[in-house]
C-alpha cells in the first residue's frame, strides 16, 4: 500500500514539475530550442546512474533509494523555487528532478518485483502502473492553480507545492521496509551481473519492446497537438483526446491479471502492441473527431495493457538478487528509446507533417510486436534445452 501511495505522489510531482520547468525557462528568456536541453537534463541521470543505482538497491535494499530519491526531489523544488531566475539553475533543478525520479522509480519497481510471488507479476505490476498513471493524470492539473497569466501558470506556487509533496514523499519512504536481500545479490559485481542479465534468453527483446512502447506514448503526446494544429482541431478537443487515452490506460491495468490468465502473457502483449500500431497509424487518416475519440480510447487501452506486461516479463526473467539491476536496465533502455526514437522520427514532421510521424510510429510498434513475439520463442527454446525428468 505504501509503495502504491509513493508511486502516485512521485508521478504527481514529476508531471507537475516537468512542464512547469519548461514554462520557467521560457519565462526567464530561454528559447524554445532550450526545451530540448531541459528534456535531456532530465534523462541524463537515468542514462548515467541507472545501473549503479539498481546494483546498490540489490545490495542494500529499496528503502535507501526511496529516501535518497525523495531528498533529491526536495532539493530540485528548492533550487527551482529560490534560484529560478537563471536558465542554468533551472537545468540544475531538472537534473535533481531526474535523479530523484530515477532512484524512486527503480526503488518502487524493485520492491514490487522482489515482494511478488512468481505468477503474480502481471497483476501486481498492473496495480502499480495504475497508481503511476493516476499520479500522471493528477500532476498536470497543478498547472491550473490560480495566480498565473493566460500564457504562464503560477510557476513559483507550483514549485512550492511540489516541494511540500516531496516532503510527504519522504515521509512515505520512511514507512517502506526493504525486501529481504539475496546472498547472490550481495556478492555480484555490477558489470558481470548486468552482462549475465543481458544473456538471459528474451531479456534484450523484452527491453526493446518496452522502450518502443514507451517512446510511442511520448510521440503521441508530442505530436497529437501538432496534428490538431494542422487540421484546425480545437485545443480543448486535443486535451480531451489525451485524457481519454490516459483514462483508458488506467482502466486496462485494473484487469491485467485476468486478461493474462485468459489469453496468456505473450499473446496479450503481441496483440496489444500490434493493435496500438494499427490504431496509431489510423490517426494519419482524415477522420471525424468522434472517430478520433474512439481511436484514442482503443490506443489507451492497448498501450496501457502492454506497458506493464513488459515490466512484469523483465522482472520474471531476472533472477532474485538482480531484479533491481534488471529494473534499472529497463529504465535506462526506456530513456534511451525516449531520446533516440523521437529524435529520429521527429525529422519526418518537416516533410510529412504530424501524420507521417504517426504512421512511422505505428511501423515502429509493429517492430515492438515482433520483438515481443520473439521473447516467447526464446523462452520455448530454453525450455526445449531442458531434459525431461523421468
UniProtKB/TrEMBL annotation:
The name this protein goes by in its record: MFS transporter
Span of the signal peptide: none
Entry membrane topology: Multi-pass membrane protein
Main location: membrane
Alphabetical list of InterPro entries matching this protein: MFS, MFS_dom, MFS_trans_sf, Sugar_transport-like
Transmembrane segments: 34-52, 64-83, 89-113, 125-145, 157-176, 197-221, 233-256, 268-287, 293-319, 340-366
Domain Major facilitator superfamily (MFS) profile: 1-379
Keywords recorded for this protein, A-Z: Membrane, Transmembrane, Transmembrane helix
One GO cellular component term noted in the UniProt record for this chain: plasma membrane
Pfam family, one: MFS_1
Cellular location(s): Cell membrane
Amino acid at each position: 500500500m505504501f509503495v502504491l501511495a509513493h508511486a502516485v505522489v512521485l508521478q504527481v510531482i514529476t508531471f507537475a514539475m516537468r512542464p512547469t520547468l519548461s514554462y520557467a525557462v521560457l519565462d526567464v528568456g530561454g528559447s524554445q530550442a532550450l526545451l530540448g536541453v531541459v528534456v535531456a537534463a532530465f534523462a541524463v541521470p537515468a542514462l548515467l546512474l541507472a545501473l549503479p543505482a539498481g546494483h546498490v538497491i540489490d545490495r542494500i535494499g529499496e528503502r535507501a533509494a526511496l529516501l535518497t530519491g525523495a531528498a533529491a526531489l526536495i532539493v530540485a523544488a528548492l533550487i527551482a523555487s529560490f534560484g529560478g531566475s537563471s536558465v542554468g539553475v533551472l537545468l540544475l533543478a531538472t537534473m535533481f528532478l531526474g535523479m530523484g525520479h530515477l532512484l524512486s522509480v527503480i526503488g518502487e519497481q524493485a520492491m514490487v518485483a522482489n515482494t511478488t510471488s512468481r505468477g503474480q507479476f502481471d497483476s501486481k505490476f498492473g496495480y502499480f502502473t495504475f497508481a503511476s498513471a493516476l499520479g500522471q493524470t493528477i500532476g498536470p492539473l497543478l498547472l491550473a492553480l490560480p495566480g498565473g497569466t493566460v500564457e504562464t501558470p503560477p510557476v513559483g506556487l507550483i514549485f512550492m507545492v511540489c516541494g511540500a509533496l516531496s516532503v510527504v514523499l519522504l515521509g512515505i519512504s520512511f514507512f517502506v521496509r526493504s525486501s529481504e536481500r539475496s546472498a547472490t545479490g550481495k556478492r555480484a559485481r555490477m558489470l558481470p551481473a548486468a552482462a549475465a542479465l543481458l544473456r538471459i534468453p528474451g531479456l534484450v527483446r523484452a527491453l526493446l519492446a518496452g522502450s518502443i512502447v514507451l517512446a510511442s506514448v511520448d510521440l503521441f503526446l508530442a505530436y497529437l497537438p501538432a496534428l490538431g494544429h494542422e487540421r484546425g482541431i480545437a485545443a480543448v478537443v486535443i486535451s480531451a483526446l489525451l485524457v481519454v487515452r490516459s483514462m483508458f490506460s488506467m482502466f486496462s491495468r485494473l484487469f491485467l491479471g485476468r486478461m493474462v490468465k485468459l489469453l496468456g502473457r505473450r499473446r496479450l502483449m503481441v496483440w496489444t502492441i500490434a493493435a496500438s500500431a494499427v490504431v496509431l497509424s489510423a490517426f494519419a487518416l482524415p477522420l471525424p473527431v468522434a472517430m478520433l475519440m474512439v481511436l484514442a480510447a482503443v490506443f489507451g487501452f492497448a498501450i496501457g495493457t502492454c506497458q506493464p506486461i513488459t515490466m512484469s516479463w523483465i522482472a520474471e526473467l531476472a533472477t532474485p538478487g538482480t531484479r533491481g539491476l534488471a529494473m534499472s536496465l529497463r529504465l535506462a533502455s526506456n530513456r534511451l528509446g525516449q531520446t533516440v526514437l523521437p529524435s529520429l522520427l521527429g525529422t519526418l514532421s518537416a516533410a510529412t507533417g504530424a501524420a507521417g510521424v504517426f504512421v512511422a510510429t505505428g511501423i515502429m510498434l509493429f517492430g515492438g510486436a515482433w520483438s515481443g513475439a520473439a521473447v516467447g520463442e526464446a523462452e520455448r527454446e530454453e525450455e526445449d534445452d531442458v531434459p525431461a525428468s523421468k
